[in-house]
Design goal:
With 469 residues, this protein is of the alpha/beta class. Helices cover 37% and strands 12% of the residues. The chain is built from 18 helices and twelve strands. The strands form three sheets. Strands 2-3-4-1-5-12-6 form a seven-stranded mixed beta sheet. α14 packs parallel to α15, α15 crosses α16 and α17 runs antiparallel to α18. The longest helix is centred in the middle third of the chain and has 16 residues. The two termini are 33 Å apart.
């Protein structure tokens, strides 16, 4: 049973992948694993974890992820964690080993799937204990027996009571078991450069700037103003994509395994083509050097769509020291979310007590989570409704955002997140669609050719899917 679910997904030419909570800029090589042979725990097909006494638990905790964001959070905020300075850490007498692969183009999921399939064949302290997943492929792992119900490691309904409901819904399997927990919620906002706002709109006040981007019609009008003044509204093709793809009316794939392009995705195509032809964007792609430079002190781009993690995990670094105080956020034309990171306990973990403690402290304990939100230079939006409401209603201020309490805005948009139309194919199809239409925006192919290329590449990636009849 355990191999059947994941092996079925591996039957595709390539497995699913994602761009999301965290970006793909940060990547390191495999952190390696120790061969210390410790005791196993087992799990039945029904998800019932075997009993492992704390004294029998392994001496190596293996954590798999796609960048170092969670490693940073653990290093800075998890009680009792010691950074060894060599990419590993220590919790008590347990060595923590990080295996990190870049996320784009299936770079994380392919080795993760292979490792999960091989868990029965490796030494106990080489087995994965915790692996991280993102929203766009959560369904794949949540409905696999390779992830334990969090109740199997001791996380209770009371522990998760203050989590945003959508973060639990996305990580709940078909049998109603919560299979993963997240330390963050990821509502999105529109981040803009105050200096450009003042130069073109005459104000940098977030409430007043919001009136210029309150809906897509006003957003388009403001894009023209920016162009006329010598600026760009957006950096490139992908910047607004999430605001459209997160507001679709149905999943990418229907019950007949047909790929369905939602009307909202086609609106993104229409807008992006217009912006490209009119010079409203700078013709960059997400995560490219040009896109990053557009966020720097010499950048001429007005704004970027960013969710919670993006501001302090990406924008702060790209903006540089000169950017502190020159950025602010407003709601933008449409609520959306982008990414989020969930922690899964592997069915073969021999460190269930430690896995539980990490899950509890990092995703349930407000005393640990609140500083993740309020610490300067971190300011991640954490997955605790009561804690976030308290910060939203406090005198908290972000120095990077010129003294703005952006948590108050995130709190409002977090209430609107709807993930009812996600599917296991989201990353692969989103990436394939964006790539196919980049050629159209660049003028290398016409619309029909870009569409045909999308279907061709999508069905190569997922042979079980097909173009609608």
């Amino acid at each position: 049973m355990k191999k059947r679910v994941l092996a079925a997904l591996l039957a595709s030419a390539t497995v699913l992948s994602l761009v999301g909570c965290a970006n793909d800029e940060t990547s390191t090589s495999d952190a390696g694993n120790a061969g210390n042979d410790a005791g196993n725990s087992t799990v039945t097909d029904g998800g019932d974890a075997g009993n492992t006494d704390a004294a029998e638990e392994g001496k190596v905790l293996n954590i798999w992820c796609w960048n170092d964001e969670f490693q940073q959070r653990i290093t800075k905020f998890y009680p009792g964690y010691t950074d060894n300075g060599d990419g590993t850490g220590k919790i008590g007498d347990v060595v923590v080993k990080w295996t990190i692969y870049p996320n784009a183009d299936n770079g994380y999921q392919i080795p993760l799937d292979a490792a999960l399939l091989d868990q029965d064949n490796v030494a106990a302290d080489e087995k994965i204990d915790i692996f991280l997943i993102e929203a766009d492929y959560a369904d794949k792992y949540v409905n696999s027996d390779y992830s334990l119900p969090v109740s199997a490691v001791g996380i209770t309904d009371a522990d998760t009571a203050e989590m945003y409901q959508y973060t639990k819904e996305i990580a709940t399997d078909a049998n109603g078991n919560l299979k993963a927990v997240s330390w963050q919620a990821a509502p999105g906002l529109f981040a803009y450069k105050r200096s450009i706002a003042k130069a073109v709109l005459g104000t940098d006040n977030p409430d007043e700037v919001q009136t210029y981007v309150a809906d897509w019609a006003k957003f388009d009008e403001t894009a023209k103003k920016m162009k006329d003044a010598g600026y760009f509204m957006l950096s490139g093709y992908d910047d607004a994509y999430r605001t459209f793809s997160n507001n679709v009316s149905a999943p990418w794939v229907n019950e007949n395994n047909e790929i369905i392009i939602d009307a909202n995705i086609l609106k993104w195509v229409e807008q992006t083509k217009t912006y490209t032809d009119n010079g409203y964007n700078n013709k960059n792609s997400l995560w490219s050097d040009g896109w990053a430079a557009d966020q720097g002190p010499d950048g001429k781009v007005f704004g970027f769509f960013y969710s919670t993690w993006g501001i302090n995990f990406t924008l702060v670094g790209n903006a540089g020291e000169a950017g502190w105080g020159d950025w602010a956020v407003c709601y933008g034309p449409q609520s959306y979310y982008w990414g989020g990171t969930w922690l899964c306990a592997s069915y073969q973990t021999d460190n269930k007590s430690l896995v539980r403690d990490i899950m509890y402290n990092m995703t349930c304990n407000a005393e640990v989570m609140t500083p993740i939100t309020t610490t300067p230079g971190v300011e991640d939006y954490t997955n605790n409704m009561a804690a976030m409401e308290a910060v939203a209603n406090s005198d908290f201020k972000s120095d990077f955002l010129g003294g703005q309490n952006h948590i108050a805005l995130f709190t409002e948009n977090a209430k609107k997140i709807d993930m009812s139309n996600i599917s296991a194919y989201d990353q692969g199809l989103n990436e394939t669609f964006q790539a196919a239409f980049k050629d159209y925006f660049d003028g290398n192919v016409d619309y029909d050719t870009a569409l045909a290329n999308f279907y061709t590449n999508a069905t190569v990636k997922y042979p079980e899917l097909k173009k609608p009849e």
